[in-house]
Amino acid sequence: MTRLTGLFLVLIIALSYGKDLKNIRHEKRKFPEGFRFGTATSSYQVEGAWNDDGKAESIWDRMTHTRPCTVKNCDTGDIAGNSYYNYKRDVEMMRELGLDFYRFSLSWPRILPTSFSDQVNEAGLNYYNNLINEMLKYNIEPMITLYHWDLPQKLQDLGGWTNPHVVDWFTDYASIAFEAFGDRVKFWFTINEPKEICLNGYGEALNMSGHAEYLCAKNLLVAHAKAYHLYNNEYRPKQGGTIGIVVSATWNEPETKNDIVAAEDANQFEWGQFAHPIFSESGDFPAVMKERVAAKSAEQGFFRSRLPEFTAEEIDMIKGSSDFFGVNHYTSSLIVRNESVNGYHISPSYYDDMGVIMYKSNEWEDFGFPWMKVVPEGFYKLLTKIREDYGNPTVFVTENGCMQLTAGLEDDTRVSFYKRYLEAMLDAMNEGSDVQVYTAWSLMDNFEWAQGYNVRFGLYEVNFTIPERTRTARKSAYFYKELIRTKELDMHFEPDMSVPMTIDEGH
């Protein structure tokens, strides 16, 4: 066979399977020098000890105890992975994987039992200090999220994120955290996934969509910016760390060329709502969002737009208030806008304001859960858009991963997911996207919010049926360990689970 004929056959095979040559090549792809790999969890999802050692009630404690079957199987996070007592095993798992860092969140009601700065719970501080010090003992970088959804219930009783006073409450809490841990913690995330906090936690949960999520969004962005400037002005000079926000971003793809504008509108409403005020040159909410909500509000008889306005001072304060673009990404959606959208959504509402229909293509692979479709090219397009729209900011991928619906260690679908999404990320990086951090969600199986323990995201399986909450490495953990060890992506690497998961020298 001639070399030309061989190349022709390779091309035919690639086209037959709908793949480009990159996807069937055998060479390994190196990550840049200094690239960091880690994993993540959040406090309510893993800690347990829900009322131990002075911890107060969070909104998730209240909901799971008073409306238990809101969550699948009536599960609660009362014990979860019991990381409050198992933190040394958690760090041992980090060492087995060889992690560069671990991203975890603080529990506001564990640190401030009254929700305010008048009383600081030393037992809560001790837990986080022990975890941080145990990680640093083995050169694992702690990355802290200040807020990952577990608001003190007392503050929710006052309106939570829809009350403008939350700006001061959150800033006070942030100050206590910076003071307590900032001598050793150099990476901070203010707020995780503001869209989910505001849309799901207020617009939908309170049945006030089109109002509550917008109030929440404004207050949350101002609170984030206040905490950012507090750190920048008072703590960064002596602690030398970095701080930013984490935005969840589903990629919204137009169904046809006629839906390009609709897909752009969806991206601006979904994650541009929080990215544009911080990362754009002009600041403020996206123009299309302001225009559409104002027009809809006028049609509906409101005296003013349901989207609150920022003052000029707030716009300036929020603009640039993140040292990096933190992004959580899992999947993509298809977007369509035609006459069928008229009357499709409840009015007024966030989705009616957006004016599109979102759905998942049946042609996209899934793992038995409708919202979780595997679309790695969406990840590539998302990172490319961030680069092009916001001047190529430093990007931290703060969550990426996939679920499985059954227990078990042979998680080949998860290994496949990671390979394909990491490849898409490398494609964007090769074109110039400044991605410096990748975080696999998650280190271990968690309490997965409304799904409880029904779905599993962990590199380590947790046995939730026994008090010890034993953790066991899955095949994906072996894959991730090799990725971190070599700092290269080998699409053909097959983990050997017959070899026990052990700690390599240096970890």
TrEMBL record:
Q: Does the keyword Mitochondrion apply?
A: no
Sorted UniProt keywords: Glycoprotein, Glycosidase, Hydrolase, Signal
Query: Which InterPro entries is this protein grouped with?
Result: GH (IPR017853), GH_1_N_CS (IPR033132), Glyco_hydro_1 (IPR001360)
The processes (GO biological process) annotated in the record are: carbohydrate metabolic process
Signal peptide coordinates: 1-18
GO-annotated molecular function: beta-glucosidase activity
Fill in the subunit field for this protein: Homodimer.
Its family? Belongs to the glycosyl hydrolase 1 family.
The record's section on PANTHER family has: GLYCOSYL HYDROLASE (PTHR10353), LP05116P (PTHR10353:SF36)
Q: What is this protein called?
A: Beta-glucosidase
Q: Which species expresses this protein natively?
A: Pieris macdunnoughi
